[in-house]
């Protein structure tokens, strides 16, 4: 059975003056998937999200939500909701009133909207916080209230515009897992925008990597990381070493380079010296300088190595990515 397409985008373009922010995007997003739009600032990902939401109109192209082209419709005529980075909660309203607000605008009966708001609070695990004001909540709790306010409308698609960007590192990592778990529980399509590659790899079913208004690659996190289809994807997603060997430019991941005092004769090998160790918790990055001047970073040592040790960096040619 083929999966249902929640959103189908074809030929989407948008320019701001002389700047072409989105340069002809084609993308199908599946019902119930967690898709992340990943890219640097100015790559077009947020503009595409805003066009799906209805905050920007495309210059050309279609945006089908189910079987309806919504590209020229206002936001209130689209079955989507958006969670922003600043959460946009009303500071004078308590939590339950914030969550009920959208339903009240739609004219939903008071009893029904209250019950649905309580259900949404339960979904984001904030039962008992109904009467608190946003100022009485932590950053993570405010983010959950914003999610509840979006979910209470039961949209077909939830759009998330870098909603974790304002959180500290530890809370952001925690909320990544919470958000993915919540998406699985509610079962609706999430479209998440971020410039944080680790966030994208952690949370997504699929990732669309944006660059200069186009999608460079679309695939699962493993496909994007292990089989990048362009030099940009190889260098933007994860760490990589950039080398020129025999006149050919290649990229290779640090974990695929082994530093050893006992090299084997197969594959690539560069003799040199360990110049620095960078300890980052679960991983240590080894800086290596070859006798030929080549600089590398490796996270795959063969035994204990110290700064100043002679070693050989070796790897399989199969792990190289050729840069065109």
From TrEMBL:
Record InterPro entries: AAA+_ATPase (IPR003593), ABC_SmlMolc_Importer (IPR050093), ABC_transporter-like_ATP-bd (IPR003439), ABC_transporter-like_CS (IPR017871), Mo/tungstate-bd_C_term_dom (IPR008995), P-loop_NTPase (IPR027417), Transp-assoc_OB_typ2 (IPR013611)
ABC transporter domain location is 7-237
Q: Which PROSITE patterns match?
A: ABC_TRANSPORTER_1 (PS00211), ABC_TRANSPORTER_2 (PS50893)
Record GO cellular component, one term: ATP-binding cassette (ABC) transporter complex
Q: Which UniProt keywords apply?
A: ATP-binding, Nucleotide-binding, Transport
- Molecular-function annotations in GO: ATP binding; ATP hydrolysis activity; transmembrane transporter activity
Q: PANTHER family from the xrefs?
A: SPERMIDINE/PUTRESCINE IMPORT ATP-BINDING PROTEIN POTA, SPERMIDINE_PUTRESCINE IMPORT ATP-BINDING PROTEIN POTA
* The protein, known as: Unannotated protein
Naturally occurring in which organism (per UniProt): freshwater metagenome
